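lol forgot to send this yesterday, sorry. struct tokens for the thing we talked abt
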């Protein structure tokens, strides 16, 4: 009997436990050809928006954000006066992520989560971060550079 168990795991620990927390997707397990090893994504600014005011500061609440569907960009304001711009296109399969709530942007398609202050992937199935776009604030306007 004991011979049959050899090489099949640890006695008293089930297969699921051996495999880890099944059903909990994590990010950052980079697959070959799926982006930078640090999980970051390369920013490709959508054509036609460089240098344009794409949102007003007042449209972006502190701790929240605004998704601009036309260009699939999400603007966040993680802390007062600090604005960030990310692609709203989920790196998993391209659905548009939702506006941030409690510092997290969630993709409605398969549940990936991203940090509103960095775009970092917090929960898979996405394997990488949302690409960040450089921006500047001029007066009341937020401009993609
Ligand atoms: Fe976003 Fe799948 S497309 S999690």
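and heres what i got for the seq, position by position
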């Amino acid at each position: 009997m004991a011979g049959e168990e050899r090489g099949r795991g640890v006695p008293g620990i089930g297969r699921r436990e051996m495999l880890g927390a099944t059903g909990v997707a994590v990010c950052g397990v980079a697959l070959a050809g799926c982006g930078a090893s640090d999980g970051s994504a390369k920013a490709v600014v959508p054509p036609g928006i460089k240098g344009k005011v794409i949102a007003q500061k007042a449209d972006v609440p502190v701790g929240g954000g605004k998704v601009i569907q036309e260009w699939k960009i999400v603007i966040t304001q993680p802390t007062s006066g600090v604005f960030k711009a990310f692609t709203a296109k989920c790196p998993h399969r391209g659905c548009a992520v939702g506006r941030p709530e409690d510092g997290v942007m969630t993709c409605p398609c398969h549940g990936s989560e991203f940090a509103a202050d960095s775009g970092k992937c917090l929960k898979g199935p996405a394997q990488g971060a949302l690409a960040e776009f450089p921006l500047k604030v001029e007066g009341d306007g937020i401009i993609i550079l």
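The chain is about 5% helix and 30% strand. anyway ping me if u want another try
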